[in-house]
Here is the input.
Amino acid sequence: MRYAIILKGLTLSEAETKCRLAGATNMKSKPAMKQIFCDLDAGQAVKLAKTAGIKLKEVKKITAGVIAPLPVEVGPVQSVGLNMYDVYNELRQLYVPGLIGTGLTVAVLDSGIRETHQSLVGKVIYSACFSESPTTNDVFGHGTGVAYVIAGEYENKSGVAPGAKIMNMKVLNDVGEGTDESVVDAIDAVCVLVAQARDQGRLPTDPMYPNTINLSIGGEDDGDPDNPMRVAVQAAYVDYGIQVIAAAGNSGPDLSTILCPACDPLVIAVGGIKSWEFTIWEQSSRGPTEEGYVKPDLVCWAEDIEVANHRADDEYEAKSGTSFATPILVGVDGLLWDLTRRVYGENIRVTYHDWLQYAAAYCIKPEDTPLDKDNTYGYGLPAVGSMVKQVMRPTAPTTAISEMMPIMMLMIMMPAMMGGIS
Here is the structure.
């Protein structure tokens, strides 16, 4: 049996020694994640579980939640779903150069990416495989669409932030399955890249300095903060400053169906609303989590989203799911970071973690929903719009988040977003 060894006070070397003494084999250490993966039989697992400073978690499967594409003909010209170019193009054109999310690098942990797709050529700047599959190509048909929604660009089609760069971190195999170990491996690799970038004196806007992890995948919430994936995302955020944005899941309308690691308080969990009307998408997972946390955190469009097709370089299709709501908000984060840097200088970095404390001021929800965060809509849909061009000039390049609220209030105007789908 494969286990994750969670360190509870031991050093990595101490834990490795104890694992060897217990008879562990095929041992793999992940220093940045403070975890070890190894094979143990039942007796060895029982023995090691009694060791102080160690907690065992059985390695489990994870999947990508995919809703079947719409039954439409796909091709290089036809519009087949909600096109992010139509939604955000007006906002981009308010600035010269255009507001396109330049500086954002997103690690997409998924089923791989068809990097030769016409909309993704030159967007993927790093690739690595952590699954059992032989290549980083997308055979299953999920990661290509996610990457496109973030940064794709071709003629009158695009994702939200076409200036962003993508890291293709394949954690699912060619039938869309992986393990929490493959996810931890990839998160560990992303953290190593951040550490290398810092050591080399690179700015956070450098393409090889990943800023955000997109997780449009997940597993069952077991209610344990020591779940391997949760330990990994906690380390990524706390120790390396990497924002993790994850899909809430597609198991609604049942309650307590939020996926792991979206269930973790340090992860921005994204639920889904209908793309053509402002109501919850029925299959969007609901909170609370097994520990009682109110989730999701935010919602975005999840129905009939136009994405790049993984089977051909010039084809597109429509897909639904919180898997595709998640990269929309990842892209929005890139646009807003692009804007705040222009106003306040390259040293400013504001993420959703900063904004959530003011969420009531910049999110919108249907009138019949609770004003505060709830287990269906979270705080609601972040509203970004046509009035951002009126952002005031800063008084100092290191302005604190509290002093940025007048700017944030100007960012929340809705017409540009809703106008694109009315």
User: Anything to note?
Assistant: The mean pLDDT is 87. The CA atoms of residues 62 and 405 lie 39 Å apart. The chain is about 25% helix and 20% strand. The longest helix spans residues 322-344.
